[in-house]
Amino acid sequence: MPFGLKKSKPASQTPSSGPRPEHANTTTSPVRVSKTDLIALNRQAEQLSLKTARIRSQQGGQYLSPFKGRGMEFDEARPYQSGDDVRTLDWRVTARTGKPHTKLFREERERSVLFWVDYRAPMFFATRGCFKSVMAARAAALLSWNAVQHGDQLGGLVFSETHHQEMRPQRGKKGALHFIQHLVDHPAWTEKTSNNNREEAARQALIRLRRVAHPGSLIFLISDFRAMGEVAEQHLGQLARHNDVVLVFIYDAFEKALPPAGLYRISNGTREISLDTTSKALCEDYQYKFQQRAERLKDLCRRYRLSYLPCATSDDLLLTLQRGLGLKRGSR
Q: What is the per-residue pLDDT for 13?
């Protein structure tokens, strides 16, 4: 179970009960997702668009790119004509007939929209808003409903250190409901946290994703991107060669900067530790390390032409996605 945060009180005062992450919407849990809540996001999904969206820069150093859209599939070969792109020459037909032929392509009727959702132990944490895992699940559900509304196939992978649940692309509402069931029922919600195999779990999940992704897919990776080694980054590069890849970076404000100077108690419900933030050097070093992690993600996006979309646990999710996808509130 992840840790919560509260500031220590003088001994003469009675401490309050265990901390609870702040959340503007009191009808949903900040620490767990339900099938009902994720299904209800279907209505909000109408305010997004994955068809003509443009990933927008929100901070310096990010990469601006339109989605490539649906993939292209081979239709037929015809004799080469002046002005045709030589890169589309059909060498087999050319060799067989002795005359140059070029390939013609048609747009695929369906595009696959895939989700890679991180449920490793660090995702079950927050000091405000909701757990990172809850925000990730809601983002995946919201985007999946939008994909269904636009006639795209939907698939994905939900993974933790010990469990991988994979769903190959499916069409329609049934596919969205199947994916939501994976988001809600994954064992990570109840299993004990583990410090082992986090990097290996991410690597294996990316390998599985590469097996599912066909050229022209739109892929959302939703994670805090901790414990992502060089091999995992190379897999990201391979995915980006023929697909649109969006990194949705989930983080909590506590990870970005320590709270004001003071002595805090951090608890996971069973044990507590103390955190002293009176040291300026400690706070600056802590903040610098987060900035380094964020900059490394941005550099990765620039190198492989990925899209980068940061989202804090206290952010308005719909508004964040609208802005990140180049839309305004209420746009269709």
A: 31
